[in-house]
Amino acid sequence: MSIISVTDLHKHFKVNKHRSGLAGAVRGLFSTESTLVRAVDGISFSVEPGELVGYLGPNGAGKSTTLKMLTGLLVPTSGQLLSNGHVPWRERKTYVARIGAVFGQRTTLWWDLPVIESLELLQYVYKVPRERFRHNLAEFRELLELGPFLNTPVRSLSLGQRMRADICAALLHEPDLLFLDEPTIGLDVVAKERIRQFIRHINRERGVTVLLTTHDLSDVEKLCERVMIIDHGRLLYDGQLAALRDRFGGKRELVVDFAEDEGAAADLSVDGATIIERDGPRVVYSFGRETISASGLISLLSARYRIRDLSVREPDIEDTIRRIYEERLLEKPSN
Amino acid sequence: MRHTLDIYRRLILVQIRSQLQYRVSFLLDTLATGFQVFISFITLALILQRFDGIGGWTLSEVAFLYGMVEVAFGTMDMLFSGFDPANFGRQVRQGAFDQLLLRPISATLQVFGSQFIIRRVGRIAQGLAVLTFAIVSLNLNWTPAKLVYLPIVIASLVCFFGGLFMIGATITFWTVDSIEVINIFTYGGSEMMSYPMHIYPDWVRRFFTYILPAIFLNYAPALYFLGKPDPLGLPPFAAFLAPVAGIATLLAALAFWQYGMRHYQSTGT
Ligand SMILES: Nc1ncnc2c1ncn2[C@@H]1O[C@H](COP(=O)(O)OP(=O)(O)OP(=O)(O)O)[C@@H](O)[C@H]1O
Ligand SMILES: [Mg+2]
Predict the structure, then answer these.
(1) How large is the ipTM?
(2) How far apart are CA B113 and CA B103, in angstroms?
């Protein structure tokens, strides 16, 4: 039994055309001229209990809109959506009692209250038994290192601290499902890593089903086995991350600094890789996963030339998404 | 329902506690709020002395009306602060309202509990002072009926003003550009209701009779308490319509609010 099942989900926004000036504002009152934004445009998928799924896509793809429908904040324009046995917006209160949600740019905590008081209020809101609350708080406090700022008012927390507090708040009532919209946005490497470990922990140890959006490919690489990629409100890919990389991973790049005396005259070309940039002793090779491995390429080069330094560049997520988008256009033209 | 009320109580308590923490600033704020009301009343009093009353009403009689409206508006402002349109509109724009919908309790109740500003007691206190001054200096023929009806009128005014706040808050689901216009109705409306209605031009009075039933909440009851003849020719029972008008306004506002929330969920603005 799937925990989430979504069929042909649509969400369209009517956006009124803004005119400038007073005359424009007055005319805007009467005219109904508007454009239709198809934020989510026919998406179907299902998620099994215990999965940890990455929901990816470029800016404006429709990720947040999907999450808002999944959390009951928005009513779809059309389509079916059943999550944890409920139609989210129809049975809002019973549904949200069993889910947790963090929308990265916002906080669920009370701005002027110390973190701990917010958490205690949430204990009553969700009717968490005292014992469970204490037990969970102790565990999360340790994993998320909340200790140093539990008594600090939320308004004086750093972004990373606030995010950790918010994630803790979303889980104290032991939800079955967790929705995270860009949980690592704006955080430093250490904070990101701590949050990733925590998400992995509650997914593995507690079996919480997680759906998360992010623009950070390392979040996905470290957390998700399965990813969904959307753009313009349509699902472009739904499958294993590994398969995604094999199919669409794109070319990696090897940046090599040759020793000066290799000379500009030398050929420097290698089978299986193409030179895409050449700037004095620095040469950038582009190579596909299927033709040659990074280590293969490096040993080939170092056997022939003297190398001072080198580094491998992985294709970033935006790049992968763009490629996938293009591939799909080739395969199946949108109707 | 009991759970919901328990949460409301906790939300309010937590805010009271955190506001009382800064005792000095709390005291100063309260005094300042009260003082503002006091100054505007003194200004009014000076003007009234100069012109020998307003529309045939003496200073004490106007003070009675003024005090009643102030006490009611101050009380409403404590209970309904969460719906203050400017503040609520900001919450909607910043997505804070979404956070309320993510919790498994009534969103309406959470808005009620989202803002409790105790320094507003300053306004209530000054309103009470003005009202007391009026009652002491006037020779009102207190009957048991009047004694019972005065708090009822004030409670009805609270419902009425609360309804206006709620309607204003609901409008911000559609547009936040209209805050200024909304404020004219809420704050401006309460200001106008502090003076006897017969001093206003016909169309204003008609508006406050048929569109917003304000006249039944301040002017008509005041005539009854003060034992003054009615220059407007309202029906004799008009003085006793206050609870009807107050509750009707609040119920209409609640219905509009519910409708607004449904609209909000289907558009996501
Ligand atoms: N309330 C709204 N009214 C009108 N248009 C909206 C609304 N919410 C979203 N949109 C539009 O819908 C589209 C999808 O937006 P959405 O926020 O879901 O994107 P996203 O994938 O979360 O992007 P990002 O990565 O930037 O967060 C965008 O074109 C956006 O402008
Ligand atoms: Mg988004």
Answers:
(1) 0.83
(2) 14
Q: Sign of the CA dihedral A61, A63, A68, A70? A: positive
Name residues with Cβ closer than 5 Å to ligand 2, which is an ion: A 64
Flag whether pLDDT at A126 surpasses 90.
yes
- A165 Cα to chain B: minimum distance (Å): 15
Query: What ranges do the domains of chain A cover?
Result: 4-12+41-246, 251-314
Fold for the domain defined by A4-12+41-246: Rossmann fold (3.40.50)
- Name the phi and psi angles at B47, rounded to 5: -65, -45
Sheet holding A99-103, edge to edge: A99-103, A177-181, A209-213, A52-56, A226-231, A234-240
Nearest to A177 by CA among A3, A2, A46: A3
What pLDDT digit, counting tens, does each position of A169-188 carry? 999 999 999 999 999 998 99
Beta-bridge mates of residue A258: A307
**pTM, whole model, 2 decimals?**
0.84
**Does position A329 have pLDDT exceeding 80, yes or no?**
no
CA distance A262 to chain B (A): 59
Q: What is the pLDDT of residue A333?
A: 39
Ligand positioned closest to the Cα atom of A229:
1
**Each residue of B17-47: pLDDT tens digit?**
888 877 777 778 778 877 777 787 787 777 7
Report the 10 Å Cβ neighbour count for A148: 8
What is the C-alpha to C-alpha distance for residues A272 and A289, in angstroms, rounded to an integer? Answer: 10
Contact B254, B159 (CB under 8 A): no
Cα–Cα dist B197/B191, whole Å: 12
| CA neighbours closer than 13 Å in the CB half-sphere of residue B186 | 28
Widest pairwise Cα distance in chain B: 58
